Amino acid sequence: MTKNHHLREYSTFQALMLVLLRVSIGWHFLYEGLVKVFNPDWSSFGYLMDSKGIFADVFKYMATHKDILQAVDLLNIWGLVLIGAGMILGLFTRLSVSCGILLLSLYYLSHPPLAGLQYIFPQEGSYLIVNKTLIEIIALCLLLAFPNSHIAGIDRFFQKKNK
Fold it and tell me: How confident is the model at residue 8 (pLDDT cuts 50, 70, 90)?
C-alpha cells in the first residue's frame, strides 16, 4: 500500500464477503423497485396508512394528500431501483448506500417492531425492536465503514483517475 493510498486492504475472503453483501442488498433493493415499476396498481397508500409509532401522523398525512402520495410513490420506486443498481454496479456506492440507509430508516420508523403494535400487512416472524429492516440498515452501515467498490465496482475507475 502506498503512503497516499487511502483505501483499506482486505483479505480475499473479507473482500469477497463485503462485495457479496453489497451486491446482495443491491439486488434486494433493485428487485423490490422493479416489482413496483411493473405493477401499475402499486401504491404506498396502504403501507403509509398502516403506520404506527411516533411518526404515524406524518406518514398518514403523506398518504392522504394525492400529490404528496404520487411523489412518495415515485421516489420510493425509483429510489429502490437506483440504489439497487448503484450498489450492484459499485457506482456512486457511498451515495447509494447512504440513500439506502435513509430509505430503510423511513420504513423502520413507519412500521416499528414494538410490543403491542399490529399491522395489516403480515410479517414473516415475531419481532421486538430488531427486525430484518434494522438488520439491513446495520449491514449498510457496515458497508459505509468498510467500503469495497474499489475492489469490484465502477467506482474504482473513477478513484484511479483522481489519484
Answer: low
Identify the domain containing residue 53 by its residue range: 12-161
The dihedral sign for the CA sequence 121, 126, 131, 132: negative
Whether 48 is in a domain gets the answer yes
4 occurs within a structural domain: no
Q: Are 88 and 77 contacting, i.e. CB atoms less than 8 angstroms apart?
A: no
Residue found under cell 403523506: 62
Q: Which residue has the higher pLDDT, 163 or 39?
A: 39
Asked whether residue 151 is assigned to any structural domain, the reply reads: yes
Question: Does a structural domain hold residue 130?
Answer: yes
pLDDT of 161 reads: 53
The model carries a pTM of 0.90
Exposed/middle/buried for residue 43 (C-beta within 10 Å: 0-12, 13-18, 19+): middle
